[in-house]
Each structure stands twice: as C-alpha cells, then as structure tokens.
Amino acid sequence: DRLAMAAAAAAAGGWRRLLLRRGRPHSSLTIRSNPRHVHSAVSSTSRMLEGPMFLIPAGPKFVSARFLTIQTLDTPNPNSLKFLAGRQIVDSGSIDFPSVNSAHCSPLAMQLFQIEGVKSVFYGPDFITITRESHVEWNILKPQVSAVLDDFFASGLPLMTDAPQPDSDLSESEEDDEVVAMIKELLDTRIRPTVQEDGGDIIFKGFENGVVKLKLLGSCTGCPSSVITLKSGIQNMLQFYIPEVDEVEQVQDEVDEVNIKAFEELEKKLKDS
User: Fold this and answer.
1) How many CA atoms lie within 13 A of 21 on its CB side?
2) Which of 18, 59, 244, 265 is deepest in the core (most CB within 10 A)?
3) Among 93, 91, 115, which residue's Cα sits nearest to residue 103?
C-alpha cells in the first residue's frame, strides 16, 4: 500500500511539473532561487527552467542615485545666507574670500563668484556663507548656489588647491602676555562659536592701550547689527572678565578697505545707470 501511495504521489507531482511547464509563456523571464542569475530560456522544447521560479513583470527600470541635500539658514544679515552641505568644510578656523581676487586658491569659491550677484564667499567649519549684492533676490540666487555646491561636492575635487593668506588666528603664542592670552581664550571658547552659528567669524587683530581690535568675517561683514554685537555683546563680556579691556573696535585690512571702496563705487554706478 505504501509503495502504491508513493507511486501515485510521484505521478501526481510529475503531472504538476508538466502543467507548470506548459502553462508558462515562452517570452517570460525566469529566475532561479539565486536572484543574481537571470535567464531567458535554456531548454529547446519548454524553454523553461526547473526549480523554484518566479516571473519578473514587465515595467520601467529604476536606477538608484545619490543626491546631496543643501540646506540654508538665515543670518542676522539680510544680505548673507548660510549654506549647509552636511559635511566638514575646513578643519579649523575659517577662510574668507571678500572678492574674486582672493579666491584663486579655491576652485569652489571661483565657481561661486561666477554666479551673478555673489559679493563674497566665506568658509566656516561646516558651512558656507554667501553674501549677495543688494540688488539680487535670494529666490534667484539660492538655487544657483545650491546647484554649484551640489555638483562640486559630488565631483570629489579638492576644496583648496593652494594655502590661503591666513588672518591672525586665536591660537596662543609664547609672545602673548597674560592679558592677550585671556582675550584669545574668551574669544575662542565663549564668543566665536556664537558668531559662527550666525554664519560669520571673528578674528583677533591686536590689543593696544586697552583697545581690543577685532575683524568680523562672513555674515558679520556689513551686518546692521554688527555694532551691537561688538559693543553690547563682545565688549561687555571681555570687560566683565578682563578689567584691562576698555574698548572693542572693528578693524579692516588695507586690502579689504580697497575692495569695499571699489564695490561701493560700482554699486553707485549701477544705481545711476
């Protein structure tokens, strides 16, 4: 009886396999249990495969792609916008490009200056601040800047091809006296992180006769609230911890003054025309 039942089951299984073979169309693609190997047909009669199979339905093919999402943040300066690429930009400190003449060492900065309306470019630790010319609207400038950043970071090109001209940094020096060392430490640990959150930076330029000389970069340059930041924020904090500080003032390099003057003249000509 057991042999008869086994024979009947085998026969039934054979009929099922035959029906499955006859019921499948010749043009269908089939795949084995290992999905890596796709076969159209291997048999000259049934043109089908034995073993676990499933049909691949006809339809569009999808290709996965990686996109870099550029985010933007407003700054206290209406003419500056902070762009976040979700990656580190500079290892330490910051790099300022107040004009295209200073951007020769950075391919990305050169590309950004090719966009009409870009006035200056600033690299922070994990952000890039773009300052626009006042006559250009952000709804036109923002997508162009985002596209350049997306394409550049996807290309894998180096951010810098040459060492930039450094500003005076906040690192301590053996030549610093105790007061200067305290000023630099406060600027670096208590003030600078807050300024960088707003898309800018602050550079120590000197201390003389009770006056702390600072240079503002990025979104802080030309910001309407920069005077308040200097006097009500930075000056009050330094005076609280360091009695030797009498005043804080903003300074500019000679090159910056020339660039600002040239830009003001150009802006005046555009308004008059």
Assistant:
1) 17
2) 244
3) 115
Cβ atoms of residues 40 and 29 within 8 Å: yes
Given a contact cutoff of 8 angstroms between Cβ atoms, the answer to whether 219 and 256 are in contact is no
Q: Please count the residues of the chain.
A: 273
Q: Are 138 and 79 in contact (CB under 8 A)?
A: no
For the stretch 189-246, pLDDT in tens is 999 998 999 999 999 999 999 999 999 999 888 887 877 888 888 999 999 999 999 9
CB atoms within 10 A of CB 85: 18
Q: Residues 228, 248: contact at Cβ < 8 Å? A: no
Contacts of 14 by beta carbon, 8 Å cutoff, 6+ apart? none
The radius of gyration computed from the CA coordinates of the chain, to the nearest angstrom, equals 33
* Cβ atoms < 10 Å from Cβ of 234: 24
Distance between CA atoms of 74 and 198, rounded to whole angstroms? 8
Q: Could you tell me the pTM of the whole model?
A: 0.65
Of 248, 222, 221, 223, the closest CA to residue 234 belongs to 248
The string of pLDDT tens digits covering residues 230-250 is 888 899 999 999 999 999 999
- For residues 147-184, one letter each, b for 16 or more C-beta atoms within 10 angstroms of the residue's C-beta and e for the rest, the string is ebbeebbeeeeebeeeebeebeebeeeeeeeeebebbb
For residues 251 and 205, is the Cβ–Cβ distance under 8 A?
yes
